[in-house]
Every structure is written in C-alpha cells, then in structure tokens.
C-alpha cells in the first residue's frame, strides 16, 4: 500500500530540514518512493506520490491562498485548488489551512502530487574508479546528474544510491543531460573540496570528443569568444561581447565525408561552452537539439548571426519551437515548478517560474498522444506535464506500489502491480509516445580528465570512430 498521507508530509519535513542544514543526499525513504522498470530500451519510473515545496513570494504576502493560486497558476480552475486546500493536500507550513488563509512572509507551501517522470536510456552506469574518497564513472547520455525538472529517480545520484548502494555523494562537476562521459563524485567533504578547487582554478585538463556537421578545418582551432546566458529559465546561451571569458581548443581527428570527429579541450567551464563555440564556428554537434537549429536564424548562429533576432525574440521563438517540436525544457524543482500549467502557454508559465543555477538544460523529446485509456493499461510514463495535486486522501489508500530497497536491479519489464493510479491526475489519463532511443543521444562525450597526480578516461562511444556512419541520419 502507499504510505499514509501524514507519512508523506513527515518525509517532506525531514527533507526540508536536511536541505536547510545543507546536509548532502536524501533519506532512504526518498530513495524507496518508487522503483524502475525497463521497456523499449528505456529506463522508466513507476509513478509515485511526492511533495513539492516553495516559500511564499513577496508579492503574495497578505493575499488569500486561494486567490493567489486562482490568479498565478492556471493549470487548474480555482475550484480545483479549493478542493486541494480543503482536502489538505495543499498546505501551509505542512498544516491544513482554510481557503481564506492570508499568506505570510516565509510561509512554506507544500503540494502533494502524483508524479510521472521522463524516461531515459536504459544504458548502465559504468564505474571506472571507486575508493573511500572518490567515485569516477561513465555517465550514459540522456541521464541528468541530479534531480532537476522532470527527473528525480531517473538521475545519476538516485540510480547510484538505489542500485549501487552509493549514497551521500557530493557533486564535483556536472555534465549536460544529453552529454555522456566522465563524471566525478566526492565521497568525503575534504576530497570534494579538493577536486572542486582544482577545477575552479583550472588545474584540471579536460578532453571531450564530439561529432559535428561538415568538414572541420585542419590544425588547432582556438575559439575565445565570450559566452552569455540568454535565459536561465529555458537554459540557452550565445556568444556575446557582454559574456564571460571563454576559451575552447578544437582539433579535427577525422572526417567521414559527411561529419567530423573533433577533439575539444575547454579551458574554462561555462554553460554549454563546447556546444555554443561549435555553433559559432559553424560546425554544430550533429544531433544537438538546441544549438543545431534554425531557430537561431538561417545561419544557425554561425559567426554570431542570429538573423537579426533580439534576445527576447530568440526566447520567444524557442518557446514556440518547444510547443511545436517538444524538445525544450527547464531545470529545477524549485519555486513554482510544482504548479506549472500542464497544457497552458509555456510563455505564461515562464513568467512566474524562477529556477536557480546554470547547470544542464532539459531538451524534451516526447510527443503527447492523448487517449481515452485508463492509466492501468498505460505502460508509457508521461513527461510533458509537470506533476499535479492529489485531491483526496482516500485515493492514496486505494492504490498499491512496490518500493525498492537496498540496491536491486530494475524490473526487466513493466509490472502492473506497481502502477499507482490517481483519478485526479491528468498524467494518468494521457498516453505519450516513447522517445526513440536515438533521439536521446547527443554526440558529445567527456573523454579524459587529468589533474595534479591523477587522470581518468572512459572508453569512446561507437559514434566516435572516424569511419562511423549514422545509419539513420534523418532521425
């Protein structure tokens, strides 16, 4: 059976306290919220109940909680939020409040949701080095490093904890979700600080391999163009004189008549640095869903030519492309992501979403295909929408879920006994077509890292062979 409603809130309280205390990792209860299964070469997560939290915004102080949600969040009509508040699934400071409760400074809003995660490739995480201080691994593409946006259990840190029993890891550096390759975690605060210091002070030499469009020039190509973050909200950057200093060295390793294999040595660590510099040079990564796109203008951003678009135009067009092609996404479970509109205008939701940080950008690749079938017969995990509220406690007591403990392998096929269903969950009523595995691959790989007294490298992916030809160039 699913845990009692009070247990869910208590777990959320414990996690909130841990975050405030800046303690790493999650509780075992969080790891055991749900489990994985493999289907169509994808790693999927059985839907589960989860509590999103956010603090009251300054502009809401003194307003009625129902008025705020009716105005600011259009995922549901006001009557829906009224039902959540009355049912106690939408709480203030983890306490049930009346619908006319007036929000105060530092009030913590909590929303219990039936959460559906986005699938990732089922490729295993390859451990390269493990000792008492450090873990080095080869990250598969499509897998985020840590919980963000529509990913929580389908992340490196959760899989390591659940299937390898490697917990309380400290992130030393990050890779974009679609980038594969070398990833380091600290197992002790001292080691993590030491490695972070080396990277921050540019004492670590990094080598990446990528496959780009066209025949890359011969010789050593140095790109020193500064990079500016155009929008943290949707995770996009560009070359700009107003940007931060940035240096990447490129060298062609081979050409197969259509595309080139290029060695990349970033000397700085800006967001999307290699991808943006390659776009600027006119040789974007072959299957980069963001920077190899005409949304950047007829030249696809070559030489900084955005077709005369302003930053505002670019962001607006990227949002439009998201709606049409369904590949752009946003990081962050923070702030208002727990109430984003599931079907409404993305631009409207962006106006109130305030994610923090500048790490990976999510590029979604699934296309919604609504159907009338009940979720009990639905073996696809939806991803387009953000989670939505539970509406009554009795629903939680009617469904069952088998949770995963210790370090167990995922189910090798879908198990209907582990599928939870909530009658008020929009996701449970919609079927989404699975992404094609090739749509979750980007030809950019972190190959080698070398620092003072240490060096690690991974095997190269198949696409990095000089004579490799894409068997499905049009996707």
Describe this structure in words.
- There is one protein chain.
- Helices cover 20% and strands 23% of the residues.
- A hairpin with a 3-residue loop joins strand 7 and strand 8.
- It is built from ten helices and 21 strands.
- Helix 3 runs antiparallel to helix 4.
- It is of the alpha+beta class.
- The strands form five sheets. Strands 7, 8, 9, 10, 11, 12, 15, 16, 20 and 21 form a ten-stranded mixed beta sheet that branches.
- It is globular, with a radius of gyration of 23 Å.
Write the layout of secondary structure elements.
Layout lengths: L4 H16 L7 H4 L4 E4 L2 E4 L2 E8 L9 H8 L5 H10 L2 E3 L15 E8 L4 E2 L4 E5 L3 E6 L16 H9 L5 E2 L8 E7 L2 H12 L4 E9 L6 E4 L3 E5 L4 E4 L8 E8 L3 E8 L6 H9 L29 H15 L20 H7 L15 E3 L17 E2 L3 H6 L31 E3 L11 E8 L2 E4 L18
Parallel strand pairs: 10-20
Antiparallel strand pairs: 1-2, 2-6, 3-5, 4-5, 5-18, 7-8, 8-10, 9-10, 11-16, 11-20, 12-15, 13-14, 15-16, 17-19, 20-21
Helix pairs in contact: 3-4
Brief summary:
With 475 residues, this protein is α+β, with helices and mostly antiparallel strands. It is built from ten helices and 21 strands.
User: What's the quaternary structure here?
Assistant: single chain
Number of DSSP strand runs: 21
Helix content: 10-25%
Radius of gyration: 23 Å
In the predicted model, the low-confidence regions spanning at least 5 consecutive residues are 328-406
Average pLDDT, rounded to a whole number, is 80
**What is the 3D shape?**
globular
* Content of β-strand: 15-25%
Taking the alpha carbons of the first and last residues, their distance comes to 42 Å
Specify the number of helices. 10
Largest sheet: number of strands, sense, barrel closure = 10 strands, mixed
Task: Report the structural category.
Answer: alpha+beta
């Amino acid at each position: 059976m699913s845990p009692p409603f009070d247990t869910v809130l208590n777990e959320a309280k414990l996690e909130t306290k841990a975050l405030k205390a800046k303690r790493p990792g999650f509780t075992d209860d969080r790891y055991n919220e749900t489990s994985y299964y493999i289907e169509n070469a994808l790693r999927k997560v059985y839907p589960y109940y989860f509590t999103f939290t956010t603090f009251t915004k300054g502009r809401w102080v003194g307003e009625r909680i129902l008025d705020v949600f009716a105005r600011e969040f259009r995922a549901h009509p006001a009557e829906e939020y009224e039902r959540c508040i009355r049912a106690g699934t939408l709480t203030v400071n983890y306490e049930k409040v009346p619908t006319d409760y007036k929000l105060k400074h530092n009030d913590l809003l909590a929303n219990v949701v039936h959460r559906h995660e986005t699938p990732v490739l089922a490729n295993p995480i390859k451990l390269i080095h493990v000792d008492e201080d450090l873990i080095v691994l080869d990250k598969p593409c499509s897998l985020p490093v840590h919980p963000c946006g529509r990913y929580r259990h389908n992340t490196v840190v959760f899989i390591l904890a659940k299937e390898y029993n490697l917990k309380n890891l400290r992130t030393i550096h990050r890779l974009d979700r679609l980038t594969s390759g070398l990833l380091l975690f600290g197992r002790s605060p001292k080691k993590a600080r030491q490695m972070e210091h080396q990277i921050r002070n540019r004492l670590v030499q990094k080598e990446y391999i990528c496959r780009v469009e066209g025949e890359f020039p011969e010789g050593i190509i140095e790109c020193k163009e500064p990079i500016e973050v155009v929008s943290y909200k949707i995770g996009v950057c560009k070359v700009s004189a107003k940007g931060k200093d940035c240096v990447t060295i490129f060298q062609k390793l081979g050409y197969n008549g259509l595309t080139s294999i290029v060695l990349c040595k970033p000397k700085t660590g800006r967001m999307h640095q290699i991808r943006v510099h390659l776009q600027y040079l006119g040789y974007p990564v072959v299957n980069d869903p963001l920077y190899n796109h005409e949304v950047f203008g007829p030249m696809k951003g070559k030489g900084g030519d955005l077709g005369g678009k302003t930053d505002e135009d670019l962001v607006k067009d990227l949002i439009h492309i998201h709606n049409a092609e369904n590949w752009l996404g946003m990081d962050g479970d923070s702030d208002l992501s727990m109430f984003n509109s599931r079907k409404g205008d993305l631009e409207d939701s962006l106006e109130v979403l305030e994610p923090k940080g500048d790490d990976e950008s999510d590029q979604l690749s699934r296309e919604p295909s609504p159907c009338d079938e009940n979720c009990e017969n639905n073996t696809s995990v939806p991803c387009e929408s953000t989670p939505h509220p539970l509406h009554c406690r009795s629903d939680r007591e009617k469904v069952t879920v088998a949770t995963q403990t210790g370090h167990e392998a995922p189910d090798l096929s879908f198990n209907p006994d582990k599928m939870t269903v909530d009658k008020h969950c929009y996701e449970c009523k919609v079927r989404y077509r699975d992404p094609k595995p090739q749509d979750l691959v980007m030809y950019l790989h972190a190959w080698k890292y070398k620092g003072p007294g240490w060096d690690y490298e991974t095997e190269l992916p198949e696409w990095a062979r000089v004579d490799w030809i894409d068997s499905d160039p049009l996707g």
